[in-house]
Backbone:
């Protein structure tokens, strides 16, 4: 069995080799025939399969198919590749598109002709011709002058065989010559618009054959610009309808270009747009109240340009009197939108009383806007209805009205509204001293409670037993005037000389002061000898009940540089250092040389001025500083010692000048008690005397070493002119 299988296997192997050899021979023959039997003039392979019949094969004349002549090939033709527009536009107008370049190529070597004015390759005019190489781009320029006139023309590009005998391919191109520029029409004509806003659409019309290409516009008054190819060189390319600004005059300028590059001239329409009524805004009026000799300036503006006039009276812009017809005239003219206009209205053009002055402006669109103000002409001087003191007694111009030393203010009531920007202040004169010296009063102030009530505040306690008057000079500025500017007239309280003179008098300060211990530690007999014991004597040293409250110098909270000496028993606070002295190193030292000695008229304002220190908060934070009364000054005195009383205790006032028998002013005037000023209904004591028309040349003072003393004349700062040291006068200041 095994041997039989081997024989079969050998036989099969031989058969396979035989068939493989036959197949290999066939492949070799096939490849040879494929590479050798190639078509004439052709590249690549041509596979020829042996036909079973010769039917259907054409042979050249004389060729019987035996292979004695070559196999024929079909004729070949070239093709055009045209890459430019099939329609183009040109113009013979300067600046337009004067020519067009066409580009093309052929896929075989050949010959071409470019003909104009024909739709075939045999007619028209030959513009260009020549041989063309395969796959080479050719460019031909067609000028507007190549076309006989405006209109549409066919340009023919023809591709021929190299010997020009055979037409291979052709392309037809339409050439449009257009020498006329387009025109632009604006949908809304120029003019004035007062009821609705224009909505401007542009329409381009081309009378030539090319058609419109683009439009551009500007509305700022300058010309728009377009190039021949439609590029916007100035302005905005038009795409849709547009509007213009309201309340303005706008020049809209438009231009267009057609496809042949003809640019139109600039068309301009002017639009005066004033839609809606103007709004008149009055910014300011310099005087709402004025006299006939005055004038007022009205500053105003309109949000729309227009012509305006002023009218006086009436209820609208069709009534009243035109300002131009008044005497003096109120002129009107042209107002630009949102520009301030100042118009002067003469008071003489108004009637007495209230006048309605109306600004009327008419826009280009015939719309009217207005605004008005009421101006009051007043030529009558105001009058004073009353002057009261602290809301109580009336002031008097002929006799002295008794007022308290604590009087706070005067109220002036007028019979009409006044100019509250004016705040006249009176001057304070001492009428009990010859010459009526001025008493400077730096704290006096004036405020308007309302338009008809003016308050003068003294802001300081008045002196005791003081005969004085307040004087307002209405011939000097500032003065009382009404809103129109009329000065308060002669009448109640006002003299023919234009003065308001108010007379007053004061008595003693009703406020009491606590009695303090005298600080005596010894008792004495009638001869001044010191007693061994004070028991039963009833003298001050025998009485230890009364307290003594004068402290050492200190600074109050918040005012470290303002040194004061408090008295905890009386409740008074004293300025530690006097005029010309400052606190330094625990004592008062001289800061000004020579020391500024003072008259009574210097002392009063010196202490009052302390109330204005620290930006109005007052020295050491107190606002009641003043020259002390005699009883306040005497409360400081110590009665201990055999060499005199110590009027200014050194412990409370270290460094205080006391070397030359200095005196210190009080605000207690010395008065003469005569039959004319003693009230006999009272027991007749000096303390009950009534100061009426008596004189008060001097004022009480205290000595540094003694008690109370008297200065013969308040205008002096030294007494006893024949005394070597002159008894110089200074001032101490006290506050509650």
Residues:
């Amino acid at each position: 069995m095994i041997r039989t299988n081997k024989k079969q296997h050998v036989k099969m192997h031989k058969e396979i080799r035989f068939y493989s050899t036959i197949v290999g021979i066939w492949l070799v023959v096939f490849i040879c025939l494929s590479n050798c039997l190639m078509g004439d003039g052709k590249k690549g392979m041509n596979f020829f399969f042996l036909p079973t019949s010769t039917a259907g094969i054409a042979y050249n004349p004389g060729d019987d198919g035996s292979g004695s002549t070559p196999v024929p090939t079909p004729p070949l033709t070239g093709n055009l590749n045209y890459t430019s527009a099939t329609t183009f536009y040109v113009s013979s107008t300067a600046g337009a598109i004067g020519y067009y370049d066409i580009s093309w190529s052929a896929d075989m070597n050949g010959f071409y002709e470019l003909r104009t004015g024909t739709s075939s390759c045999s007619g028209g005019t030959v513009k260009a011709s020549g041989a063309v190489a395969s796959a080479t781009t050719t460019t031909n320029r067609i000028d507007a002058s190549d076309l006989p006139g405006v209109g549409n023309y066919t340009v023919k590009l023809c591709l021929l065989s190299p010997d020009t005998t055979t037409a291979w391919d052709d392309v037809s191109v339409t050439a449009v010559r257009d020498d006329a520029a387009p025109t632009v029409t604006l949908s809304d004509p120029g003019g004035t618009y007062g009821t609705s806003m224009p909505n401007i659409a542009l329409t381009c019309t081309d009378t030539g054959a090319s058609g419109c290409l683009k439009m551009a516009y500007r509305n700022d008054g300058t010309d728009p610009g377009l190039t021949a190819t439609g590029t916007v060189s100035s302005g905005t390319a038009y795409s849709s309808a547009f509007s213009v600004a309201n309340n303005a005059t706008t020049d809209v300028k438009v231009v267009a270009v057609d496809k042949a590059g003809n640019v139109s001239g600039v068309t301009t329409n002017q639009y005066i747009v004033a839609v809606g009524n103007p709004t008149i805004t009055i910014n300011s009026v310099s005087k709402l109240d004025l006299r006939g000799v005055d004038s007022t300036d009205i500053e105003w503006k309109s949000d729309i340009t227009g012509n305006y006039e002023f009218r006086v009276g009436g209820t609208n812009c069709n009534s009243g009197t035109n300002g131009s017809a008044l005497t003096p005239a109120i002129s009107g003219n042209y107002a630009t939108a949102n520009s301030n206009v100042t118009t002067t209205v003469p008071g003489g053009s108004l009637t007495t009383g209230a006048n309605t002055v109306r600004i009327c402006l008419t826009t280009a669109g015939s719309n009217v806007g207005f605004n008005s103000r009421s101006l009051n002409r007043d030529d009558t001087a105001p009058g004073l209805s009353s002057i009261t003191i602290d809301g109580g007694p009336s002031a008097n111009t002929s006799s002295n009205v008794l007022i308290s030393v604590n009087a706070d203010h005067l109220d002036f009531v007028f019979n009409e509204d006044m100019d509250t920007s004016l705040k006249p202040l009176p001057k304070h004169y001492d009428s009990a001293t010859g010459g009526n010296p001025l008493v400077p009063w730096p704290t006096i102030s004036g405020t308007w409670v309302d338009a008809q009530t003016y308050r003068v505040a003294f802001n300081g306690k008045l002196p005791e037993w003081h005969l004085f008057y307040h004087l307002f000079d209405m011939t000097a500025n500032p003065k009382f005037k009404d809103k129109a500017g009329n000065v308060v007239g002669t009448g109640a309280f006002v003299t023919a000389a234009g003065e308001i003179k108010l007379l007053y008098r004061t008595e003693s300060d009703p406020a009491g002061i606590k009695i303090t211990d005298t600080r005596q530690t010894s008792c004495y007999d009638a001869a001044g000898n010191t007693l061994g014991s004070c028991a039963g004597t009833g003298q001050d040293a025998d009485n230890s009940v009364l307290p003594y409250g004068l402290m050492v110098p200190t600074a109050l909270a918040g005012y470290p540089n303002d040194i004061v000496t408090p008295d905890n028993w009386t409740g008074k606070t004293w300025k530690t250092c006097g005029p010309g002295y400052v606190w330094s190193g625990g004592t008062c030292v001289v800061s000004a040389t020579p020391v500024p000695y003072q008259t009574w008229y210097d002392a009063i304002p010196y202490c009052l001025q302390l109330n204005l220190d620290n930006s109005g908060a007052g020295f050491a934070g107190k606002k009641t500083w003043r020259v002390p009364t005699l009883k306040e000054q005497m409360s400081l005195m110590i009665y201990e010692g055999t060499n005199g009383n110590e009027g200014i205790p050194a412990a409370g006032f270290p460094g205080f000048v006391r070397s030359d028998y200095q005196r210190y002013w009080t605000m207690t005037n010395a008065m003469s008690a005569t039959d004319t000023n003693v009230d006999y209904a009272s027991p007749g004591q000096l303390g009950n005397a009534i100061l009426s028309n008596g004189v008060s040349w001097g004022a009480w003072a205290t000595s540094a070493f003694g008690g109370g003393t008297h200065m013969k004349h308040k205008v002096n700062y030294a007494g006893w002119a024949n005394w070597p040291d002159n008894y110089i006068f200074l001032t101490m200041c006290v506050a509650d």
The chain is about 5% helix and 30% strand.
